[in-house]
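pipeline/complex-builder :: batch 7 item 3
reading input block
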Amino acid sequence: MCSILGIVNASGKLFSASSIIEGITLMNERCNGLGGGFAAYGLYPEYKEYYALHILLKDFEQKDRVEEMLKEHVDIYKDEEIETRNVQGISQDYLPWRFFVDVPERYAHDADNYIIDLSMKINDTGNALVISSGKNMGVFKAIGYPDQVAKLYKLEKYEAYMWLAHGRYPTNTRGWWGGAHPFSILDCSIVHNGEITSYGTNRRFLELYGYKCSYFTDSEVLAYLWDLLVRRHKLPIDVASEVLAPPFWEQIERMPGEKRRIIEALRITYGPAMVNGPFGIVIANSTGLTGVAGNGTMVGLSDRIKLRPLVCAQKDDYTFMASEESAIKAVCKNPDIVWAPGAGKPTVATVTGDV
Amino acid sequence: MYSSVPEFRVLIDKQRCRLCKRCIENCSFGALEWRGDKVKAFDDRCVACLRCVSMCPEDAITLRRTPSDVSAHPVWTENARRDVFTQSRTGAILLASTGNELHESIIFDHLLLDACQVTNPAIDPLREPIELRTYIGRKPRSVEFEAIGDSIKLKTELSPALRLDIPIMIAQMSYGAISLEAHEALARAAVMRGTTMGSGEGGLHKNLYPYSDHIIVQVASGRFGVHPAYLEAGAAVEIKIGQGAKPGIGGHLPGTKITDEISEARMIPIGADAISPAPHHDIYSIEDLAQLVNSLKEATRYKKPVLVKIAAVHNVAAISSGICRAGADAIVIDGFRAGTGATPKVIRDNVGIPIELAIAVVDQRLREEGIRRETSLIASGTIRNSGDVAKAIALGADAVKIGTAALIALGCTVCKRCYTGKCAWGIATQDPKLRSRLDPADGAQRVSNLLLAWSIELKEILGAAGINSIESLRGNRDRLRGYGLDHTTLEILGVQHAGS
Amino acid sequence: MRIVANYKHYKELNEEVVQAIKNGAAQLTLEDVNGQRFIADCLKGKLKIDIYGTPGNDLGMFMDGPTVTVFGNAQDGVGNTMSSGKIIIHGDGRDIVGHSMRGGKIFVRGDVGYRVGIHMKTYKSNVPIIVAGGRAGDFLGEYMAGGIIIILGMHNTAKKTEILGDWVATGQHGGAIYVRGEVDDSKLGNGAAQFPMTADDEMTVKKVLTEYCRVFGLGLDSVFETDFTKIAPVSHRPYAALYTCE
């Protein structure tokens, strides 16, 4: 059991962290203090040309080592400690650092994959954790309740046009900073409620495409699957959702011709990418839909037999996606519309405004 | 002579016996004869097929195993001594049926499945849908679309695949090794449960053609009955390189079994020996296999998957990689416990490796080479129950094949005398009188029942593990634990020990 | 009596409710409720509780008698294992409304979620009843062993077209589901089938809906403009042939 919440402004208007903090805190009942985290999009407008690497380090000495490693691969434009404060109940296991980096000219044609490979390389060292690596976005996470984590990272200082939040109740891995959500690959972040039963199948499928799963947690696998399907294979979001949470064969049999052919092909090809077991997820990335321009997309999705809750709401140009309606009501008393999306049916909100 | 000491003793209760002679009619091994006023048993001819026991209306017959105890020796077991005696008497290769009898330890029995408690829910298979549908064949790397206005159209073309409603197929057993009635029963069961059966290497009797979209036609080294109509009829074509019960060994169906109907199906003269060479004489290396795969694809106009079956031998991973790269849409791996109608006992008991290890290493090897999606893996060789099916799939198989289990469903009592052709249950025989004992419709129903029961149990296993589709169990070794397996075995299986 | 829930933890809020009842309050109004769980949990007797806001999960769990009215939407698990009483929701209900419910009534004005009425059962004179004015998600009345579910599919707020999800009444072995309008057989799960409405069925539905319409101020005639479909179990022992032994 975990709590998830996402808020996005379709016009790209920046808003403070207060609402995401308030909303996620209302669901503290769903977590146990062993992990909290946030992802924010639109954080670094003045550095938006650079990949912003948020890295959790053991100490300053290790920071130097990571910096050396980075220098071998990328140009560091700027780096600084991610400001934190002491919060009662949170032990500062890590030193969070941010690097704004650029990919050398000769790798520029495949810069995104280059950054992903670099992040996985750093994670592989086992001592430093790249917790996000997209442009103009960042992930903040630690052990603690989400509100404590927000305090730790002084989130009140940040503004973003799209926020994700997570409160963790760890099940299959211990509570540690690296295991907290959101999980992120490049600019794609995911918060997840549930425990997937297909982890081994999914992980081994991802390995076929060059992904290394180093966090041993199902949420990491979800982030990579989304990256594979949406960024690399360029599947439209509703199609990618049908890979993660496909219709049942008996439902497929009732579909009209071309639709049926498509879903059959998806299930045959991506069978091992199907995510089994209970999940409710909110995914964010800083691009538009496949084939549609945009500065961000937020997708809410639950498993195909709806074993985890997900409620969505809209108010003007804001869209909310949460484990519980009350989390939305905590920050938006009178939404224009509140609804519970169908099992396996994605709810999509796109940022069309400038950011 | 020691070797004539009977293995079984037939006891007939004289109080109960009403002298109806039904047992005598039923014994195809000549172990019972009428002597004036009573049924006399010749124990040394009894193979414990249990036909007489089942047919006796008075339950008057009891079989006892090994009535004469031999002096015990841990190395010179009774079997070891018996084999030496037999060979010293005849100077011939020991013939055996069924599967490996030497290795009792079965890895499947040391693998434990997982279930959900609290952190995620078990799914109730009786109420909620759980899917077993399986596609056998090459899968594309990705699916591509083209946009047409607001809608999308599929651009990727899928390779031909076998669509199975359940991940359990019926293995290749030839007409000749088994009776036409058994062949037909298996084919009908495959149709009933939405799966396939294998023609075996003996061609296809015309009575089987109506079921041919559920039959995988085999092309073996003897090429018996392989002709255009045969290739066109099958749902898929399977090249048999070897089988688990006799890796590297050819086959020999004696001319005495080549009846006119078998002659027609195999396209060889009546009474002539049907010899399957040990290798295909057009395959002396891997590139030759590619040639045969491609010629079969060409012959079937690229509409049917081509499978390649091999015995699990030591180097099975590298061999499978080569087979995959030769274009096989699926690889059937037959473990060293697999059954057969006839094989040299020394080969059966001593050659090959267990299917559990074979599947694990092949799956892993193909993944490491990034070609796992290009072929399906089918595991066979002692799949005894739905637990074995689930474990084989979790280790990495796409589906399994069953042979012996299907024959047991038809009535086989595992008396291990298939090679005699005297099967009292009408299965491994061509004797019209014995064949008439097996009703294809009834047999089909029993095999179908077995497949149904295992399917329901598989759903229970999946549901308990919180999985509602078989593809999420496939290769999911995280949901297995070993129990009492050594470190090396666990490492090869890619499975953790229970408790970790 | 009025209690403002505001941001109180559910323990604090529910304690106040329990104390108020101990002090003789029979009518309570809870305001600014948002996400507090277990409201009216295990409460007994003739109480009236009005809730403004969005109560949290397991509203009215184990409840035996009170009438709870929600002016808003409810979250998951409304009326979980409840024995008797009434829960009225002026908005939507979410997943597992009436899970294992044994008696009482749950009236929802809008939509309900997945697995509504799952394993609800009848015991002696207790017949649980769920009515939803909107649509219902998949697995409606799963393992249903008794009671009545009525789905009206009327004021549909969620832009959905179909009244029912898939696998309706799968594993049903008791009780009845009445759906306003026609139902495609492909919607039904194993164990359930459509049956013609009998005079008794008509009477039952009319009686329940008369009360339902009164509660929400709806016109009964407009509800009956469309015919109802009855879904009931094929057998009380659907799994009799499932197991075997030697």
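note: Chain C has one domain: 2-192+211-233.
queue -> next item
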